[in-house]
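Input structure tokens:
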């Protein structure tokens, strides 16, 4: 390598980094323009690791709704059923730490962290034994919360819970490397922005999560894009923990030991969901389950009326 090469490479690297930085700033600024997630009745719980955004609606027995842990997730996920549920329940919808409009500190997010959040929220905000509806990966949070402090939780409804085998996967060299790469300030953020573009969300919804692709609204795509970019690059840290498998935890022992009533509501269009739910029943035969026709991973979005009917029965 001659003497002229080094300055040229340094200049090229600097220009590339500046270009990535400019693209990153553009992505974050344009993704949060519409403020779809903003709600006039929002409240904030001052937790030890940051402010937790939540809404409270209705009166009656308390009901806590936990959104999925997918990138871009937030309480927005429950928008089609929360008003109806609030007719008979005191409904709390929260954005978990690292998601939605809650704070997003630079830290490693784990199942245990979220279990502590849910239990602290139940004790300090709800103040009564509460029912929980948990979606996707957050089902493991609900189960572990029941196991760790059974006096805080009443009954639990799981919407398309994550497979037990997937939850048993722990961080390995490959997932740690992926987390390290995405955590990088400029390059990692650039890769994250490419993975959380609106087109990426549309494609993922079509291929993996929705039974009826025509139900994927532009507002929903925008909401997920906004949640994955608010307020800035800090939004990526929950996702890097997710892909790094730091949010995973085995829950078989908890399923065997807890005495709570557990119900599973699932979309029949979700791949392998029958096998997944049967595995839950293998470890706790008292669990009841029901499938929703013409729905995939989000039955409460694709078939809200049918989902509400089952929720009313279980609750």
């Amino acid at each position: 390598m001659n003497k002229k090469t080094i300055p040229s490479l340094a200049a090229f690297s600097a220009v590339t980094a500046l270009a990535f930085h400019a693209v990153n700033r553009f992505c974050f600024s344009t993704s949060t323009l519409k403020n779809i997630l903003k709600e006039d009745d929002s409240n904030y719980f001052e937790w030890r690791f940051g402010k937790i955004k939540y809404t409270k609606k209705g009166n009656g027995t308390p009901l806590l709704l936990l959104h999925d842990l997918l990138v871009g997730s937030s309480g927005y996920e429950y928008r089609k059923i929360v008003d109806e549920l609030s007719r008979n329940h005191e409904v709390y919808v929260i954005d978990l730490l690292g998601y939605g409009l809650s704070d997003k500190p630079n830290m490693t997010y784990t199942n245990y962290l979220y279990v502590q959040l849910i239990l602290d929220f139940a004790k300090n905000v709800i103040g009564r034994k509460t029912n929980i509806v948990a979606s996707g990966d957050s089902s493991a949070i609900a189960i572990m919360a029941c196991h760790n402090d059974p006096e805080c939780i009443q009954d639990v409804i799981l919407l398309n819970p994550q497979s037990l085998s997937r939850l048993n996967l722990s961080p390995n060299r490959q997932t740690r490397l992926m987390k390290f790469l995405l955590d990088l300030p400029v390059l990692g953020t650039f890769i994250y922005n490419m993975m959380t573009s609106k087109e990426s969300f549309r494609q993922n919804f079509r291929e993996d999560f929705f039974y009826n692709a025509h139900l994927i609204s532009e507002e929903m795509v925008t909401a997920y894009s906004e949640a994955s970019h608010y307020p800035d690059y800090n939004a990526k840290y929950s996702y890097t923990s997710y892909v790094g498998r730091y949010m995973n935890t085995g829950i078989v022992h908890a399923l065997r030991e807890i005495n709570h009533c557990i119900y599973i509501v699932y979309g029949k269009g979700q791949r392998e969901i029958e096998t997944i739910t049967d595995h839950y029943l293998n470890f706790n035969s008292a669990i009841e389950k029901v499938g929703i026709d013409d729905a995939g991973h989000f039955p409460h979005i694709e078939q809200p009326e049918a989902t509400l009917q089952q929720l009313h029965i279980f609750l």
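The longest strand covers residues 50-57. The first helix runs from residue 5 to 31.
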